[in-house]
Amino acid sequence: MTSTFKFPEGFLWGGATAANQLEGASNEGGKGLNTPDVLPGGKVRLKVLSDPGFDFELDTEKYTYPNHEAIDFYHRYKEDIALFAEMGFKTFRMSIAWSRIFPNGNELTPNEEGLAFYDRVFDELLKYNIEPVVTISHYELPIHLVKEYGGWRSRELVTFFERYVTVLFNRYKDKVKYWMTFNEINSSLHMPILGLGFAIQNEEDRYQPTFQAYHHQFVASARAVQLCHEIIPGAQIGCMLVYLPTYSVDSNPENVLFALQEEQIFNYFCGDVQVRGHYPAFIKRYFKEHNIELDIQDGDLELIKENTVDYVALSYYMSRTEKKDKKPEEVGKGNILGGIKNSFLKASDWGWEIDPTGLRISLNQLYDRYEKPLFVVENGLGAYDKVEEDGAINDDYRIDYLREHIKAMGEAVQDGVELMGYTPWGCIDLVSASTGEMSKRYGFIYVDKHDDGSGTLERSKKKSFDWFKNVIATNGEEL
């Protein structure tokens, strides 16, 4: 179909991944152990992510660890990047593993093997005129920083992070123009193990350590913005949010207010600090009501105020519907971030509700609030893919999903939203962050790797590969 809208010239079409979900080679090249390395595969991972007793230890007799090999991008990056180039990618969103650069996280000298690996990846991308977009910290923390310092609970991580980003900016200043600090920073309100590097020990202790850790990340992010602008003039560095527009289940004012408050805390708190440069009024009341007192050092608030991000990146997968007094049976099956089932929406194989209009709503809400360029850096459909006898993978369901979301983005551009680009998640099949499964596939490129660890790792094109190639070639005019 031909669209009735136009995306801006220079729109950054591409795909998105994370180091810990595709690189593999978990103990090669001087890399240290990190948090994803100790997360088990399969649906047990969701239980681990909310386990207050999780000890960040490997138990190979009890669990499998698919992130250790993942899809072996570490050795196959040239093959994969050639496929991205064949699709016509303008950009590739990836992350750097902190534990590849500083294996323990707190060394004084970086690991040259790790730095050289990313040099090779960037050179390969640039050979095809694919612009790297780099997430500095994507659900990955060296285990040493978890065990010795308690993750982002510790103020010392600000110093270690500053050392890490200084090395990155100096090393890759001629190769990378687009950076992001912390992936889906607000998700730690629900899953601190992924983003903050610690487990909540008990419900009474949930708020204080989480928000103190957030403050440390805000300071670290602001310092990264400052250093990026100093070391790489002209570079752009953004924050990154997981965004779920939050609907009230009905027009009952109590439910509307509850939905608003949930949206403020989850969708806007982190963005307000990183984009507007200060703690918003609503969070101050929240702190008071939950007896949260932050240790804020001299100069922190000034640093945050003076070093706001250049753009706002977001992941969008679903919307969220709320009511004040919901019953357990009302909670949506796949809504790992809360909410109740929305009777107006269909859901994916994993129960994630599909709401393209919610993306248009999200982009309008964020642009109205921040008036900064937006970048949709994750969006996609996790689904079971069937390989036919002739090798074909007819993923029309994925094409339909992406088409409707691209149309929603096009409408948002017509609404006046300044949109930088679109990098669908998992452009090549990789290990799921939430469930550790390979069977939850997102990619345009199929990888022969399965939940039990079997497979050849061979790459093959799905039907969506050629479809997305044409979308890019026509700058979104043919969907």
UniProtKB/TrEMBL annotation:
Cellular component GO terms held in the UniProt record: cytosol
Name assigned to this protein: 6-phospho-beta-glucosidase
Domain of life: Bacteria
Enzyme Commission (EC) number: 3.2.1.86
EC supergroup of this enzyme: hydrolase
Gene Ontology MF terms in the entry: 6-phospho-beta-glucosidase activity
A GO biological-process term: carbohydrate catabolic process
Claim: Metal-binding is one of the keywords in the record: no
Similarity remark: Belongs to the glycosyl hydrolase 1 family.
Organism whose genome encodes this protein: Niallia taxi
Keywords recorded for this protein, A-Z: Glycosidase, Hydrolase
Xref: Pfam families: Glyco_hydro_1
PROSITE patterns per UniProt: GLYCOSYL_HYDROL_F1_1, GLYCOSYL_HYDROL_F1_2
Active site as annotated: 378 (nucleophile)
